[in-house]
Predict the 3D structure of the following.
Amino acid sequence: MSSAASAALPRARVDMPIDGTRSAAIAPPVGASAESARRRAGAPILVVENVSLRFGGVQALQDISFEVREHEILSIIGPNGAGKSSMLNCINGVYAPQQGSITLCGEALRRPNPHKVARMGVGRTFQNLALFGGMTVLQNIMAGRNFRMKCGIALQALRLGPANREEVAHREIVERIIDFLEIQPWRHTAVDRLPYGLQKRVDLGRALAMEPRLLLLDEPMAGMNVEEKQDMCRFVLDVNDEFGTTVVLIEHDMSVVMDISDRVVVLDYGRKIADGPPQEVRGNEDVLRAYLGGAAARGD
Amino acid sequence: MGFFLETLIGGLMAGVLYSLVALGFVLIFKASGVFNFAQGAMVLFAALAMARFAEWLPQWFDFESALLANVGGFLVALALMIVVAWSVERFVLSGLVNQSSVALLMATLGVAYFLDGFGQTLFGSEIYRLDIGIPKDPLILAERWFEGGLLVSREDVFAASMAGALVVALTVFFHSTAVGRALRGVADDHQAAQSIGIPLGRIWVIVWSIAGFVALVAGMIWGSKLGVQFSLSLVALKAFPVVILGGLTSIPGAIVGGLIIGMGEKLSEVYLGPLLGGGIEIWFAYVLALLFLLVRPQGLFGEKIIDRV
């Protein structure tokens, strides 16, 4: 982990100048390290209970239950079509499961409503990039702070004092995120001109700008080369360490998953087949069967 | 010289009216990335509502004042346009979140036909008079420099100042950086916009309401000139070339585009008409738009379109 990057963020949090825009819950304890973050893993921040989701005749998720504890990194893995993205979309409020309940920070989600979930402190990135194409890196990340801006349209439009100060203050936070993700040189580049790996970082930056309590990452390392994957791993771990942000991620690269996760949930054909620490899941027979077919499990 | 200026001014004023309709297109395009085919129908619907309520209100509440009737009619029509905006969001757009922009485009076509029909069912399909009290006699300017002076229609001057005021107000609104970002975000990617806490539905209602307001102002002015009738919804056709010229994403572009087309139409009709056999006014705007599409598809002020292949 680069010391410059990790040093930038704690400072960012200390002199963040806007009152009331961040909740006490996401302030990291002083001197938090990976170990202490994991030991702190405490109250469940997200509880998924008996969730079933159907699209017509397709059973995308069947009776799924799991918990995510605060400050944890949880990976959801499974073969293609296992229902991983559907699960994320349920948490995010894009889909409403037909059965079961999802409780976020003690509040049950009823009607699907992604922007409300976002305001409750859930940030997310997308499997297929969903950046605001024509806008610059800076504008994209600033957009992540939009809902935290308090000044009315009239003030903003006329660029009156308070609105200006607010914009500047938010800009400072965004600049720190840009430093943290090491994308300074592309600050004013339109995102659709950036290479894929950098676009993924901007996507993460936009989610980070919301100062989420829970970060949902949909295949953050898909399509990346080894070096880019390492960078992305480092960013995810840093965010988790420094802010104590809870992370739920979907990933296909097993070495990544085994390295960074505290816990792994395995889905197959919409059912949960395993849930536990990486070492345990790795040896689980059902998991081997799901990934390698019956042969491996029978030991042929 | 005096005749040239008169033609020029007449053209500019007509252009302002095109701009008014074009503004509505630009607003909705900026906020949803969709070309709103229903803008013309909204102009007709708003004008019908205002004309009929300005006629009905004095009968219902038994008063004489024409001003009061017009103001009342305007307010009721505005309220109706907000209801239309809300319904469009609730019953049409909300079901199309995350769909391709072609789906949204087709939906606006549906809205256009619905509004055309529904408006005429509610308010009748005859030609209604809408008298907003602008004197019809022309102003005569600059008599000192030109023999007989320059004739300028008062109606046109009124329309131009209304359009000017609208543009200033809208520019100020969109100048707000946070609102601008939210709108562009919604236009670019629904899912991503929602994921960072932008309330898609509310943004759409606001923008369609504003577009409804602009349609009402356009309908009021066109209606008082031509009478409120079905052909108002075809005025929108003239606004297509205006937005192509000015750029789909630019509010000033809608104004400048309107002015260029209004002016070009009138001047070419007067000066080239005799050579080409007249009727230039009818096709001039479209030919100009076609040329622009070939040379500068993003328009004069639009954002450059970058497509990666």
Remarks:
- Chain B has twelve helices and two strands.
